[in-house]
Amino acid sequence: MIENNICLLTDSYKVTHHYFYPKGTEKIYSYLESRVGAEFNKTVFYGLQYILKKYLEGAVVTQEKIDEADRLISAHIGEDIFNRKGWEYILDEHDGKLPVEIKAVSEGTPVDVSNVLMTVENTDKKSFWLVNYLESLLLQVWYPSTVATLSAEVRKLSNFYLEVTGSSKDNRDFMLHDFGYRGATSTESSMLAGSAHLLSFSGTDTIPALTVPENYYNDPNLYGFSVQATEHSVMTSLGPEGEMDQILNVIDKAKNGILSIVIDSYNYRNFLTEATIKGSDLNRAINDFLKIEGNKVVFRPDSGEPVSTTIDCLNMLEEGFGSYQTDKGYRVFDSNIGLLWGDGLDYQKIRDILFAMKSNGWAAENIIFGMGGGLHSTVNRDTQRNAFKCSAQLRNGEWHDIFKNPLDSSKKSKTGRFKLINENNSFKTILIDEDGEDCLRTVFKDGELLVEDKFSDIKSRALNYSNYI
């Protein structure tokens, strides 16, 4: 089988649509939006350039791909179903380049829900069927966009609690760490989700995501960083009776910098009791490590009920290492230590932990969060209610408005062809012939990528949103 055969990158039923459209159809115009009812009121658009460069740019149609698709669809659905003639027309008349025009808002831009994010229209009237054939592939931009939105909203949440508790924002870029690679559905999905996270934060353990800015966004800079850290295979090496010996070994062998220690292999309270007893071997070892400028120890409990366990750990660490108060009266550890909670988190649980910390007099700067499955795998297309719909068709030289209006009014689609304008820092979708500067740019046309954004520019747009309280 040929990898990335564009003729097969669609849903089965779409293969049958080329003969279902009305006679005289010349153009199909479709759009992408996040519909009303999304979890967050803005969507940070991201990932289209990756899809275009990987799957659509250049001469993507070949005779071999057409032949393979014809054989597969004939067996899959039936004979004379596959649009061989239509694909061979693209190969012969367009040298295998796709005759479509794609307009989109700049990546990294937060757009209010119920607004157009992208439009797709064919540029050759004989290829009208191609627009919604590409829906299945293009709509996958929902995934990196939703992850980018989630990370941006967590950053906004973090900003709020850092501000109200008088916390330092020096570590803000690392308050949410990406642990999602192992929980991702594929390496490609981990790359997309991991790079989307890097628009708002700099902490990640998803190494494949580090390649996306250079390979797909013209930016050789490194945007993700991590630290030395233990896991249970390390901490349980000497069994329960040897836990303290093993952690002393870890601290002795650790390089200078940040050291993250998982403490719930057996009983986190026993671990922290030993760590905070002044004069104990573990307490001395930690304090000796912290004497070196720039060194920091982060304790990771990761078991139990997140809110109560977090508060319990903070209180125990304060007894052993002391604290001072911010100018707003919230406690911060005296020593260069911190807490990391990285188990079973989502946006609501992070909010609950930060709220509980504030209620118990703790500054937000004491904690770091880690998300794995919550970042990569718990979002879905309905999180931001992303939908790709046809809104206009050109037949026999005349445009016809197209829409759906089911009993579920939240699924009503837009009608016509559109612009996206920005009025007083708020986006609004209007008809294409109305006044206003269009924020949708032609990014792809007839097989050519016309706009190539740098990752740094996309990140700047996202941060302009997520840094605002």
Structure description:
The chain has 469 residues and is an alpha/beta fold. It folds into 2 domains: 6-140 and 395-466, nicotinate phosphoribosyltransferase (Alpha-Beta Barrel); 146-376, Alpha-Beta Barrel (TIM Barrel), CATH 3.20.20. The protein has helices at residues 48-56, 63-76, 84-94, 130-133, 135-138, 142-164, 187-197, 212-216, 232-235, 243-253, 268-276, 281-290, 306-321, 347-359, 373-376, 455-466, and strands at residues 25-34, 42-44, 100-104, 110-112, 116-122, 176-178, 203-204, 228-229, 258-262, 296-300, 323-325, 331-333, 337-341, 367-371, 386-395, 398-401, 418-423, 426-431, 441-445, 448-449. Strands 16-15-1-5-3-19-20 form a 7-stranded antiparallel β-sheet. A hairpin with a 5-residue loop joins strand 11 (323-325) and strand 12 (331-333).
How is the topology of this model organized?
Layout: E1 25-34, E2 42-44, H1 48-56, H2 63-76, H3 84-94, E3 100-104, E4 110-112, E5 116-122, H4 130-133, H5 135-138, H6 142-164, E6 176-178, H7 187-197, E7 203-204, H8 212-216, E8 228-229, H9 232-235, H10 243-253, E9 258-262, H11 268-276, H12 281-290, E10 296-300, H13 306-321, E11 323-325, E12 331-333, E13 337-341, H14 347-359, E14 367-371, H15 373-376, E15 386-395, E16 398-401, E17 418-423, E18 426-431, E19 441-445, E20 448-449, H16 455-466
